[in-house]
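User: structure tokens for this one?
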Amino acid sequence: MERTLAGLIERHVRQRPEAIAFRGEHEDLSWASYEERANRLARHLLGRGLEAGERVAVLLPDGIGVHIAYLACEKAGLIVVGIGPRAGAEEFLHLMEKSGACALLAPPRHRELELRELCETLAGRQHPLRVVVPVEQALESGDPIWEEITADSSLPAMRALGADETFLLNSTSGTTGLPKCVAHHQARWFAFHEPAVRNGDLSRADIFCSALPSPFGFGLWTAHFTPTILGATCIVPEDFDAAKILATIERERVTILAAVSTQFILMLEHPDFDSFDLSSLRILFTGGEAVPYTRAASFEERTGAKVLQFYGSNEAGALSGTSIHDTQEKRLRTAGRPLPEMQVRLFDAEGNDTTSDRKGQPGCKGPQCSHGYWRDPAANAQLFRKDGWMLTGDIASIDEDGYLSVVGRTADLIIRGGKNISGPAVEAACLTLSSIRLAAAVAIPDPIFGERVCLYVELHQGASLDLPELTTHLARQGTTKECWPEVLITNHPLPISSGGKVAKNELRRDAAARAGDT
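Assistant:
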């Protein structure tokens, strides 16, 4: 089998050129059109003087266009910097500088971001862009910008990336604040594909719908890779709306849905949920955060589908997964058995192997592991042990039947709706407000999103602060919206641990108690 998407798509074009690869909100994209549009964009990028291995930032809304852009970069031998469609200006600028991107594909305006202003800001920070391609989201035929930039077909021959070469950088949140860039190679997603097919009994006959942001791991395998490897059709909504996804499942007879827990809970709570015909749905792949048992069981009961998940990370891939052959208790109360393709061990805080004790921090080796963090030795030193095991930052246990469960995490993260939010990043952004003396961001439990951002603050003497004032300040300075606190608690003084730091465990207990009172 071909081990790159470019090679696979060429085969699909030879065998089934008019079959549908992607179904967007405004048009369908056949395999032949997918390749043709990607070829045109790839040749345009090469004609602009970009060299092999240079980074091209792709800031496009979800939909057909982002997949065309990713394939075009692969064919041109360029590395995608996948920037999430919800990224704010601060995150965008950080990722551009961190990745060293010298080219940008983006619409003239993306949400609140003006392309011209972003380029001017980068130039002012000594990071000028050599190539800027203003494209509309679908890269559609008939769009005058698209037609103009891809009109010349006599451009250089393409030089596609190999399966083990870095093809994409995406962001991941960590305890150090601003996102790091994870370096992906295609071989890892081909390796991920195999247990996905096995656990879900997936085939070309399935109709996929991925409700996830395209640049991140969950979105990559459920939209960009597995459907294409199978030759199946994937429906790619431009944004998440519960009613729209439910209507899509009914209209398109979707069999495989990919959504984080928050999304399927919002679907369950839609007042018209039971009026939709969801009988075609076989599987909901979920994850990215804790899967609530009662909600998942309700989804299974009301749809007839089975809820499956993989446990892993953007960096590591999948370490374990549930299967359609597991009992409901195992499917919904555990993260499944470790995958045979991956080596998985457990370690204690001192680094001792505690696999035989069945509890510890998971570490892994295997074909799904990424290359680590892009040009970040300090971060890689924390990600990898000296003996090569990649660590996840979680605490897990493995039961007598070999099923893994996540029981805690070592990292200072808040997981809101499947999105990892760095507590220190929230604190750093909020501490730019002069009225705040100390700040501590923790998770507060939430029945819909799993967790929300709760900020405890100690103010300077005589100062006052409310949540609207804080969010207005964060919006003004370009802080990504996901990092905005949703609960603000003023505490004088903040509790301090024996080590001299804010006692976050005490605050987490307080936040949990407050959530229980509501």
